[in-house]
Amino acid sequence: MSTYFEMNQTSELYENSTVDYAYETTEYIYDESNTPCQKEDIKKFASKFLPPLYSLVFIFGLVGNGLVILILIKYKKLRSMTDIYLLNLAISDLLFVLSLPFWAYYAAKEWVFGDQGCKIISGVYFMGYYGGIFFIVLLTIDRYLAIVHAVFALKVRRLTNGVITAVVLWILVIFVSFPGFIFHKAQKEASHYTCSPHYPKKAENSWKLFFILKMNILGLVIPMGIMIFCYTLILKTLFRCRNEKNKHKAARLIFIIMIVFFLFWTPHNVVYLLLAFHDKGSLNNCESSKNLDLAAQWTEVVSFIHCCLNPLIYAFAGEKFRIYLSSIFRKLIPSQYHCAYCLSHPAEKMERHSSMYTPSTTDHDISAVI
């Protein structure tokens, strides 16, 4: 993922930056005024605005995804392909949020974690981002097979296949994220240290454009296209089912997944496309450059929040996960505060119910959605 700390150097306008964050804010001699574009106010805003928000995303992302991993391993025992994908989605989000404290400190101060730290944290960050997106796509395909091609799904939706697919996808994630390890470097600029991408000088603009297009194609266009295709056919199949209650619940959840993904990621990608080409036409001025910097900060934080919502959308929205979560909290809360009318052992009852039900080859597995 090309982040704001990478994107700040995606244009010829950005040669020096004042916004700490793997870039500084640009000083560029504009043709008309022949004066530098001062962005000290952007830097001060980022140093106050970004650290607390990154910290909140870190806390909620850590707790939410940590609970998903706990439930999948301790209660669900990773019995299905879907469980494997949910586990890897949670791991991806954890990788992503674990890098945020470093970027929060960087936004407030400067980079103090050395050159190797710059490379490792940047690489982990990108792995978390691409891993999260790719496993969301994989979960979408898994749901598509379970509902639209139910008979075929019985043959392929096996635990072993899930593990193999997850391993292959992680290899792809590492490959896509590898430039983050290679190009990010820590170096002293002016009076402080930065962590930012440094591309080969002879092909610098080509590399920058490549990473912008990679982010948009792999991070939005392809995932969104697959989701629209799969969920459209899923909805058509669901509305032919007889289970009125469950199919409407599943349809609502599908719309939530689509809308949330679109709203949280589209502004982020659009802003970075504009940043890539902001030296062209009407955007080639200091005021537009400042506005794009601010927009990049806001949209990036909004996109970060998505990793906190993944546990709610993909895990806790399901009845089984809610029951397992209830069981965890029941163990943490003293027994005298338990509800007298609640199930005594909700997780165990859910397991017995699941083990007694086996779908026939003609069933559409709506539980794959809800």
Automatic annotation (TrEMBL):
GO terms for biological process: calcium-mediated signaling; cell chemotaxis; immune response; inflammatory response; positive regulation of cytosolic calcium ion concentration. It is found in: Cell membrane. It holds the Pfam family 7tm_1. InterPro entries: CCR1-9-like, Chemokine_CCR4, Chemokine_rcpt, GPCR_Rhodpsn, GPCR_Rhodpsn_7TM. The chain crosses the membrane at residues 53-73, 85-108, 120-141, 162-183, 217-239, 251-275, 295-317. Residues 64-314 form the G-protein coupled receptors family 1 profile domain. It comes from the Eukaryota. GO terms for cellular component: external side of plasma membrane. Keywords: Cell membrane, G-protein coupled receptor, Membrane, Receptor, Transducer, Transmembrane, Transmembrane helix. GO terms for molecular function: C-C chemokine binding; C-C chemokine receptor activity. It is a multi-pass membrane protein. PANTHER family: C-C CHEMOKINE RECEPTOR TYPE 5, CELL ADHESION MOLECULE. Belongs to the G-protein coupled receptor 1 family. This is C-C chemokine receptor type 5-like. It comes from Geotrypetes seraphini (Gaboon caecilian). The lineage of its organism: Eukaryota, Metazoa, Chordata, Craniata, Vertebrata.
